[in-house]
Amino acid sequence: MATAAEDAWKPSRRSSMSEIFREFLLDFPELRVILLGNSWTDRAVVGNLLVNARVFDEDADPQDCVTERAVLSKDKTITVTNAADLLRPDLTDARLSVLVSEAAQAAEPGPHVLLLVLKPENFTEPQRLRLQTSLTRFCEQWFQHALVLLSTSRLNVLKEPHLQSLITECRFRFMCMEHSEDEELKGFTRKVLFTRLAQIVQENSGEHLKYERFEDTVTPAASEKPNLALRMKEGLTGLVETVKNSGLTGIQSSPSKSDPQGNYSMRIEIGFTIEQNFCGNVTAVLLSCLY
Length: 291
Hints:
2 domains; alpha/beta; 6-stranded mixed sheet; 8 helices; 4-stranded antiparallel sheet
């Protein structure tokens, strides 16, 4: 039995798509959606449902994103970008950044909705972490524009902690959908899906997600690390000499030393007088393991 909350967002069977667009997307001539998830086929099925045509090859698995545009009504269009598989464990950080950038550029000036299409029986905790890493590279506020779409009708999959975690982060926005060739069922599912997408647009006052380019951290080559460690050790020795030459009294220092991780540390104890006796301790630590 449907709850009052469910009935609030489900359009009636008599509602036409044009009525849904008029009600929810009155001031938004274009809707931009990026599809992400762990199954190209499921994303292609959803993409074809959104554009109401078989434009995404459900049997392919391209290495790059694919974008299709369609007219929803005389004054409304939709742009759907099916992103490349961002959950592959063999993707390097550099390649991941490129694929995220390509998907964001295909949906310029930015997507209104990130539709996370997941095959729950194949969705794992490592994939959840990988997906969230990818989403963060779109924008830190990605969750404000995200909807989880589970390609199943079995609600018992929601018992999985990693699915609960992702749905919670998406502000509990989710829906379940099984693929069907029944035209009447597909038409109704399309109305429900568009209603959910339109509500996300409304919740964000029509603002789209703004892609924030992620800059990979450049780390020194392994051959540079010994020189870095040597410079840090020399820096600590110079710090002691500087303090000693400052005219302060009661200076004591322990020799610099390194631990098994290559961290150099030195303790300097300084005693000085400001109107009354005061003892201060200064600890200088430089971590070579951060480089």
